[in-house]
Amino acid sequence: RSPINPSAPLIDLATYTAFRQSPELRKQLRTALVRMLRFYGFELLPSDPQNGEGDGKERYEVRKSPHFAQASRNWVTRFDHNHLRITRIIRCCRVLGLEEEARAFYAALVGVAEERRGVISQKTMMFWRRAAERPLYLAPEDDDDEGRGLEWLYRVELGERTD
User: Fold this and answer.
1) Which of 1, 8, 45, 127 has the highest local Cβ count within 10 Å?
2) Which pLDDT band holds residue 50 (cuts at 50, 70, 90)?
3) Quick one: which H or E segment has residue 43?
4) Where are the alpha helices (DSSP H) in the chain?
5) Cα 96–102–107 angle (5° rounding)?
């Protein structure tokens, strides 16, 4: 639950399933992601198919847009509320089926953090890394790497039945 907005919707099994089964819902989510990337000064581009792994999945790359310098002033700072929002964006994309896009966004963020070393805190980087790389059932803010996190998501990731 969000302490800021307790009535904010949570992703449940029905939502997860709907997005995983619907290319149209994922397309709409990608459109929303592109809008947020633009706000942060990035753009989402299809990656060169030659760089793919031959598995038929679309690959994406997130690059700085021409207005990155101006847009990044909104969030490339030591402490900023956008850092939490970025964590949520990465995690949401992964949970709802845009794993490649989330991976590409995280890679772009790591690049910015390396260029502006010390500006984005190590704690923020830890949350972004957790959102991008941890098993989905473990929330970025969960400090217990051995935990089960969200039970339904734990069971989904293990391939167990959830009905």
Assistant:
1) 127
2) low
3) strand 42-46
4) 13-21, 23-40, 68-72, 81-95, 99-115, 122-133, 151-157
5) 170
Element (H, E) at 41: none
Q: What is the dihedral of CA 50, 51, 57, 59, to 10 degrees?
A: -120
What pTM, to 2 d.p., does this model score?
Answer: 0.90
The CB density around residue 132, as the number of other CB atoms within 10 Å, is: 22
- Looking at the predicted structure, is the pLDDT value of residue 51 above 60? no
Contact (CB, 8 A) for 75 and 40? yes
Q: Looking at residue 8, what is its pLDDT?
A: 82
DSSP lists the bridge partners of residue 43 as: 63
Which class for 79: exposed (0-12), middle (13-18), buried (19 or more C-beta within 10 A)?
Answer: exposed
d(CA 133, CA 158): 16
Check: CB of residue 79 under 8 Å from CB of residue 53: no
pLDDT digits (tens, 9 = 90+) for 101-155: 999 999 999 999 999 998 999 999 999 999 999 999 999 998 888 778 888 999 9
- Residue 79, phi-psi category: left (phi > 0), alpha (psi -120 to 50), beta (remainder): beta
Rounded distance between C-alpha atoms, residue 149 and residue 157, angstroms: 11
